[in-house]
Design brief:
Number of strands: 11
Oligomer: single chain
Shape: elongated
Radius of gyration: 31 Å
Strand content: 15-25%
Length: 303
């Protein structure tokens, strides 16, 4: 019936079956049939011909007004339904890295009722920061950089786990024949970095990489591909390269000269008041992430 009502409205506005058919992307007989079915249903004419024009009858005008009211009520119902749905949803913002490598390992351990309400939003660091500072996100699971003063001044950080970044290279690289490496060995190498300025600054400073040739790629995944093709070397999180090292696609070599760790956790805006659901979710994350991330890292210890 709603489709027929819509056809009726278009015909009334166009004052033409032919033009209505064009706007509705259907045949003219279909339009005529819809109007005929409405007239049969109400047992009265809804349109009339007058001086060559197709006009609504008085009854048609009455129907038109009520259809307008129906459309208004339907839009209002949709808005109320959407508001109700969003109220029950629990948005969780996180970095692409955490979403890819960690979150779904823990998802099944979250209370099913709570998990069913989660809507996951994953972004790069810069976009997550923007979402927080513009109050589109109230808290986020993301890396922590002390040097990012702007974010640190407006948020409180709750650590969840710590990533160790390790040097990786392909099996074809000369490093694969070495038993020990030093910082000076990297001076003639191409080192791959992501687009994260804060991460790059910390790694370059901590690992003394100021003089190496730097190439920027968008993600850890892309860096892994370049390294596997022997297009450079990279310092990547253990969790991101575990499978590739196990399969022999990438190699690593432990060295006291190359030690960089990065904390990740919850960045919570200081000027918000958490609702009960958000507080419950954060409590769950704080209880699950340290315990389970530790379990996840056990498998990486010998990499």
């Amino acid at each position: 019936m709603l489709q027929k009502f819509h056809t009726f409205q278009v015909v009334a506005k166009c004052q033409s079956y032919t033009e209505a058919a064009k706007r509705l992307y259907c045949s003219q007989p279909t339009v005529t049939n819809h109007i005929q079915q409405l007239e049969d249903h109400y047992q009265m004419p809804l349109f009339m011909r007058q001086h060559g024009q197709l006009l609504m009858t008085k009854e048609g005008e009455i129907l038109y007004e009520f259809i307008e009211q129906i459309n208004h009520l339907l839009k209002k119902a949709e808005s109320e339904m959407q508001r109700s749905f969003q109220k029950d949803q629990l948005p969780l913002y996180m970095s692409n890295y955490i979403a890819h490598y960690f979150f779904f390992h823990l998802y099944d351990q979250v209370n099913p009722m709570l998990a069913s309400r989660l809507t996951i939003h994953s972004y790069c660091y810069d976009e997550l920061k923007r979402q927080l500072l513009t109050h589109q996100a109230r808290f986020a699971l993301m890396p922590h950089y002390v040097a990012d003063k702007e974010l640190q001044e407006k948020t409180t950080f709750y650590p969840l786990f710590e990533d160790e970044f390790i040097l990786v290279f392909s099996s074809e690289h000369p490093f694969s024949q070495r038993k020990k490496l030093y910082t000076r060995d990297l001076q003639q190498e191409t080192v791959l970095f992501t687009q994260s300025e804060f991460l790059n600054e910390e790694m370059i400073e901590t690992l003394s990489l100021q003089t190496v040739r730097q190439v920027r790629v968008s993600t850890f995944e892309m860096a892994k591909q370049f390294v596997a093709m022997n297009r450079g070397i990279a310092f990547l999180p253990r969790s991101a390269v575990y499978e590739e090292i196990q399969k022999g696609q990438l190699h690593t070599l432990a060295s006291p000269s190359f030690q960089y760790k990065r904390k990740s956790g919850i960045q919570l805006m200081n000027d918000i008041i958490l609702n009960d659901s958000e507080r419950q979710l954060i409590d769950v994350l704080l209880s699950l992430f340290p315990e389970n991330s530790a379990k996840l890292f056990i498998q990486f210890e010998n990499v």
